[in-house]
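Q: Got a minute? One more chain.
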Amino acid sequence: MQGIDRDTFRRIFDDHWDEFKGCHSSYDTEYYEDVVQKMLRCGREEGGYCEYLCTKCGQDRRRIAFTCKSCFCLSCAKGYTDDFVVQVGQVMQPGLRYRHMVLTVAEQLRIHFYLNRQEGKLLSELMRSGYECLEDVVSTVVRQKVKIGAIVVVQTHGRSGHHNPHLHIIMTSGGINEKTGKWVDLGYFPYEVIHKKWQYHLLKMLKEVVPTDEMKSLINELYKKYPRGFVAHVTKGKVPEQCRGLAKYLAKYVASPPIAISRILSYPGNEVTYWYKDHQRKAKEVVTVDVLTFIGRMVQHILPKGFQRIRYYGLQATKTFKKWVKAIKEGLWRIGRIIKGVYEVVKCKSYRERYQGMSGRDPLVCRYCGCEMDLWRVWHPKYGTIYDEWEKIKAGKYERAVESKDTATGEGGYSLWPPAGGIQLPLFPM
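A: Always. Here it is, folded:
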């Protein structure tokens, strides 16, 4: 049995991806192939690279392979999570309080989302329904029509890896009454109201988007089977108020691949054993499945091309917030909430910064002379050489007239740089 390391996930796909496509034709498409191949080439030179060279001493050269930057890639999970934190953190509004909600889909309905997974329309409508549901709930509680703000993130996988679409929503604790132009704060929140409201909005949406007799019949059954509504979770504890804390809080739930490499226990070649924490039992469950089943549980969570899994509604939309920002500040001031300027700006980390953070060493500094290395070449498997510094030098990129003076005669003149013979580096003569 091969040891479990960071390449185990890739090794599983390397060994069995072609076999899986042969058994499941719906996944034998150019898009799925592209996503999987990017993951397999991630961090390898055959997937493209940037080459850096120390032009001062010529003794150090480094190739940095491209990464796929996909949430499907376990190696890129940390970078994907950091980018997620930046994206969400930058749209948080100063002075507002937020609540975290989780809206789930009944087990009987999940098959319809799975069958429509390649189009994305059903998931898009699911996200909009979640926002409309919570706006309806808040309006019901405060007894007036208000517009709230919401950051909606869709997640399709449960802890076991099965297809389980659900929504994570960060919503503002209150909203704007568009008729009066005043902010209405949300105090007490009767959580039981959400269950019935979510059931109504979700089934209403499905009835419109999937107008079949089968769906109508299923909807009638679900109303009878779940008279108290569908499951919705509301975070009991305090949600962090600072944007970085709030974004990280949400990221731990949604900005992650279907499985972590630490959860894969063994891969002997024909089956995979992994563990997950069961929601109901609150205990660790260990499962063993054949390798094709495991691959299927992973690739079914690849979202459609161009699908936006993070969406901003209501007051979280930039233009809408700008329209009502004055009324929001006045409303918060009236209830004694101090607006403390803007939230901290979260900067997106580069590869260089992440590498320094992990190793304590700058990857672009020469190991011999300590000077910063220069970009020398960029190569892509599809487009070939995109950038070549040596070709630019030969083409005369750096040639310029340099004034010179003869110290004996005092006569001036001009020469060209660099010399006609080119630059000579100790290790890499050109």
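A: Residues 77-258+301-345 form one domain.
Q: Perfect, thanks.
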